[in-house]
Amino acid sequence: MSFYTSLNGLKNAQTDLGVIAHNIANAETNGFKKGNTQFADIVVNSASSNPRLAQGLGARVEAITQNFSLGPIEQTGSALDIAISGDGFFAMRAPDGSTLYTRNGAFDTDGAGFINDGSDNRLQVFPTDATGTVTSMTPIDAQIPPFNGAGAEYAGVSVTDNGLVVATYADGSQTNIGTVALARFVSPTGLKQVGSSNWESTGISGAATFGLPNQGAYGSLMSGALERSNVDIAEELVGLITAQRNFQANAKAIDTATQISQAIMNLRT
């Protein structure tokens, strides 16, 4: 029994090492949120057994949770680099029509003027009128027209802390493109990771609730800045050492159990 208990411990330590390695590998990934491995003990017990004689059978992985604490903010100077100072997520429409959520605000424009993340996922905004007032709470794709109504060519773009995307044209005029749509979740730790610092909603996370920047806990926006990974290398290295020691200890316990079993088999009557 001790052999299998320690074997479970080896597998758990291996899982912990994998999660820590993934965190370290993404220490420079914008918008990445680190994971933490949580374990639970396994106890053999029944209604008729003596609780003072209950025997443990080791541990199991209970969950790998995501830590959504705010990462460091880095100034970049690019107008379409946007960081969220709050709990909100950018909403992105994927090519297949599904909605993804991200904290990575490194955006750019494609040939058609759509603001995207470089993977053809388009930033979602709320439609606004000429005064900057939101006219609908249904998100749409953010698209910058290459020319304004007077035929002037697109010259640049800016994003206010309220999320208003404003395009400037060669004749000095400005056009409101929309207000950045932010999403929140009842349980963000229930979001499903899909790679590239993107998440999908699940039944655990609940459906997304959309809101405006500077509204409640959605957070304000910082143009010209990016949120870096919230991985702390020093903390991960300490966890790496701990996981390695756990692995070694369980391996030693297996070796000891093997030696005891060998000794029993070598007994002579």
UniProtKB/TrEMBL annotation:
Residues 3-33 form the Flagellar basal body rod protein N-terminal domain. Residues 83-167 form the Flagellar hook protein FlgE/F/G-like D1 domain. Residues 222-267 form the Flagellar basal-body/hook protein C-terminal domain. The keyword Hydrolase does not apply. It is found in: Bacterial flagellum basal body. Keywords: Bacterial flagellum, Cell projection, Cilium, Flagellum. Transmembrane segments: none annotated. Pfam families: Flg_bb_rod, Flg_bbr_C, LlgE_F_G_D1. Coiled coil: none annotated. InterPro entries: Flag_bb_rod_N, Flagellar_FlgE/F/G, Flg_bb/hook_C_dom, FlgE/F/G-like, LlgE_F_G-like_D1. PANTHER family: FLAGELLAR HOOK PROTEIN FLGE, FLAGELLAR PROTEIN. Belongs to the flagella basal body rod proteins family. A flexible structure which links the flagellar filament to the drive apparatus in the basal body. This is Flagellar hook protein FlgE. It comes from Croceibacterium selenioxidans.
